[in-house]
Amino acid sequence: MRNTIIWAVFQKEMRDLFRDHKTWLGTFLIPLVLVPFVFFLMGSSYSSQEQEARAHVPIAVYGSSDLLKQLEAIPGVSFHQPGDPNQALQAGQLRAIVRIPDRFDERLEAGGKAQLHVEYDITNQKSVYARDVIEERVMAYSKQIAAERLQAAGLSETDIEPIEAVYEQVASEEKRSGGMLAGIIPLMLVVSLASGGIAVANDLIAGERERGTLEALMSAPIPANQLLTAKLLTVMIMSCTSAAASLVSLTLILHFGPIASQGFALSLFTPVTLLVLILTLLLLAAFFAGLELMLSMKAKSVKEGQTYMSAVIFLAMIPSYMLMPIHPVDIPQHYYMIPVFNGVSLAKEVFYGKVDPMHAVIGLGTSLLYVVLIIAWTARLFRREGVVVKP
């Protein structure tokens, strides 16, 4: 009987959601269309900037040296002599200024060392590119002179570099792919879980209270806990749907976008790691759903509830960004006991391809504890008369 009531209320809430096209458009349109479109625009912009930077490299050179032949060989380079080179560099008319001091070649021929001054604008990516290609040519010219000096002395490069170090990376292709994904996917999943249910949670309590439908629903012969359970499941469904849409969006970006890579390495997942990931996401969805419903109860209006909900986004973003650059082996042990931190930590381990059993027990156990606490607190608030009646 109890499950029948929960299912009936749940169906009612879902039907109302399906009628609200704005909610579903926000859940699917942004992750599936706008996010890939933004990535595509970013990638196209970077590609266009790089092509332009390679095709046109205006620089100013002051002084003379055989090094000029190396600089002239840079694809797209052209020499200019503006009246005020520093102003031209800041205005983007020049990409770099090369100053060759007097007696530059003489010092090199005498076996000495000569300094070369290159000025560039670090805030301009095209100027940074010019610096890089100039540096490559200068290094090539420097190695050429060094090789000539060694030959004159009857030596070779191996004589001055007696040790040859061979560096070999040991991570498999799956781990390298997982390492990249472990920095991106937990952020997208956790933020999607937090944001996907905000509009629904705000409408199910604060919105229905403003419309007067919540009071009518609470007056029905249905236990409050069963009503809350149905609403909690509804918010969780929307959160998980938003996370799934974000995952599909990221897959499209990785496979077809301008930053396309090999995408997901499914061999990373084993039945155990996949189970850990699913449980982690479900517990996070339940935690955020309970928290959002509680904030909706405390809000006196839908507008006030929207203000409160912004804190949930920050709660999801902070651990995601903090843990993004950290390898799972370096994650502090106590992070597996902190809300949201534990879920992000476990997700990173999953995508790195190895989950520590102790971390899984601690992370899932504490996540379950926080879910029970937040739902119990939310249920306690839900029984209060002030939650139902308009303020």
Structural notes for this entry:
The chain is mainly α and 391 residues long. Helix content is 70%, strand content 4%. It has helices at 2-19, 21-55, 67-72, 85-90, 104-109, 125-152, 157-160, 173-196, 198-211, 213-218, 224-256, 271-298, 302-323, 341-352, 357-382, 385-388; strands at residues 57-62, 77-79, 96-99, 117-120. It has a 4-stranded mixed beta sheet with strand order 2-1-3-4. Helix 2 runs parallel beside helix 11 (224-256). The radius of gyration is 30 Å and the shape is elongated. The mean pLDDT is 81.
Query: In this structure, how is the largest beta sheet organized?
Result: 4 strands, mixed
Average pLDDT score:
81
Number of helices: 16
User: Which term fits the overall shape?
Assistant: elongated
Strand content: under 5%
